[in-house]
Amino acid sequence: MCKVLGINRSTYYKVANKVDSARTIENQKLDADILAIYFATKRRYGAPKIHHELLNQGWNISLKRVQRRMAELGIHSIVIKKYRHYSSNKRVTEKDNILNQDFTASGINQKWCTDITYIHTQKDGWTYLASVMDLYSRKIIGWAYDINMSAELAIKAVKNACLNVSNPEGIVLQSDLGTQYTSDIFERFLAGKKIRHSYSRKGCPYDNACIESFHSLIKKEEIYRHVYKDSKEAYDSIFEYIESWYYHQRTHSSLDYKTPAAVHAECAA
C-alpha cells in the first residue's frame, strides 16, 4: 500500500500509531466544558463569564485561552449593534436630578431606577415592559407588561416593587422625562408612598444607564431571538427571563460574579 501511495513505511506507521498529546486531550475536555456552559446559558455567555464559570469548576486557565478555544469552536455571545444616542430638539422642562449618575448604594432599597421599553408581537403589535431595578443588587424588584404604554403601567411596576419592601419611604426612584413619569397620577402615587422622584436630564439616557442597560440586555439575550405571536407569548418569555434566568442564574461582573438573588439575599439577611 505504501508503494502504491508513494509514501515511506515509517511515515505510515507514525500517522497510524499517533497518540494525542496531553495538551490536545486537555483541550478536548476544556472544549466540552466550554460548550456545556455555553448551551446551558442559551448561548448568552461570552468568554469572560464562561472563564469565570470554568474557574469555579476547578480549571486553572487564562481568559485568553478561553477566547482562543471559543474561536476554534466558532462560538461567541450574542451581539447587537451598539446603541448610539442622538439628541432631540424637543423642548422639555428639566426637573430635579437627585441621583446625578451616582448609581452606588450601601444596601438594598435605597435607590431604584425605572423605564419602559417596546416589544413587538405579530398579533398585538407593539407591547410595553416597565421595569424597576434596585441599584445595589441589580434585581428587577418590580415589573409590569401591557399592550398599552400608560402612566398606569409605570405605576403598576412600582407598585409591584413596593410589595417587596415593608416601607418605601425615602427611596430615590430615577426615571426619564417621559409623559408616563411626569404625569400627575404617577407623581401622586410616589408622593403617597413618600418615594423621592429623581429625573434624568433631557436627552441624557446615561442618567438612567442601569435600567437602559437591562432593557438592552433582555432584548439581546431573549426578545430579539424570537418572533412573538401575541402578548401572552411575549409575557411568558419575559417572565422566564426575569424571574428564572436574570434573577437566579445570570452572574454580573459588577456584583463580583454573583447573581442578583444572591446579593439581595445577603443584604436582606
TrEMBL record:
PROSITE patterns: INTEGRASE. InterPro entries: HTH-like_dom (IPR025948), Integrase_cat-core (IPR001584), RNaseH-like_sf (IPR012337), RNaseH_sf (IPR036397), Transpos_IS3 (IPR048020), Transposase_IS3/IS150/IS904 (IPR050900). It comes from the Bacteria. One of its GO terms (molecular function) is nucleic acid binding. One of its GO terms (biological process) is DNA integration. Residues 103-268 form the Integrase catalytic domain. Involved in the transposition of the insertion sequence. This is Transposase InsO and inactivated derivatives. It comes from Anaerovibrio lipolyticus DSM 3074.
